[in-house]
Amino acid sequence: MLILTIRTDRPEAEIGLFEDNENLVYETWEAHRQLAETIHTKIKTLLKSKDKDWHDIEGVVCFKGPGSFTGLRIGLTVGNALAYGLNVPIVGTQGDDWANQGIDRIIKGENETQVLPEYGHEPHITKPKK
After folding, report:
1. How far apart are CA 84 and CA 26, in angstroms?
2. How much helix, strand and coil, in percent to the nearest 5, is found in the chain?
3. What is the share, in percent, of the chain residues with pLDDT greater than 70?
4. Is the pLDDT of residue 128 over 70?
5. Contact 48, 101 (CB under 8 A)
6. Structural domain containing residue 99
7. Which of 13, 69, 89, 106 could potentially form a cystine with 31 if both were Cys, beta carbons 3.0 to 4.6 Å apart?
8. What is the mean pLDDT of the chain?
9. Does residue 95 sit within a domain?
10. How would you class 10 by CB atoms within 10 Å of its CB: exposed for 0-12, middle for 13-18, buried for 19 or more?
């Protein structure tokens, strides 16, 4: 089962491809403010490096937080959209062993359908200027 992992809670974004529990390829890059511009290209390049295509993805694991508001929003939107569009399961996890936990859950047949971010604190909303 080909599983895509996505972590975008900090300036260094991470994506990986796993065949069940075997790490096929993993990439970390300084995405910072270019995350939305680079994540799709990085995933496509990662897939191509293993002679895979978007439709070969059979599950998605996302780090759901805590972390950067914008980073989590972008990463989880990409993960949720891929899972929905490809009709594959998605799970969200936390902690140091997030990828392995998520992969185990996908292999066991779990599916959250949609992963929501956990930011770690209440948002700081600026009052509108008059």
Report:
1. 23
2. 40, 25, 40
3. 98
4. yes
5. no
6. 2-107
7. 13
8. 95
9. yes
10. middle
Q: How crowded is the C-beta side of 65, counted as CA atoms within 13 Å?
A: 18
Which helix (DSSP H) or strand (DSSP E) does residue 38 occupy?
helix 35-49
Residues 6+ apart with CB under 8 A from 29: 12, 13, 38, 42
Residue 96 lies in a domain: yes
Domain holding 75: CATH number? 3.30.420.40
Predicted local distance difference test score (pLDDT) of residue 126: 79
Into how many domains does the chain fold?
Answer: 1
Taken in order 43, 46, 50, 51, the sign of the CA dihedral is positive
CB 18 within 8 A of CB 103: yes
CA-nearest of 127, 6, 15 to 73 is 6
User: What one-character DSSP code corresponds to residue 66?
Assistant: S
Question: What are φ and ψ of residue 19, in 5° steps?
Answer: -100, 100
pLDDT tens, position by position, 22-39: 999 999 999 988 999 999
Domain presence at residue 121? no
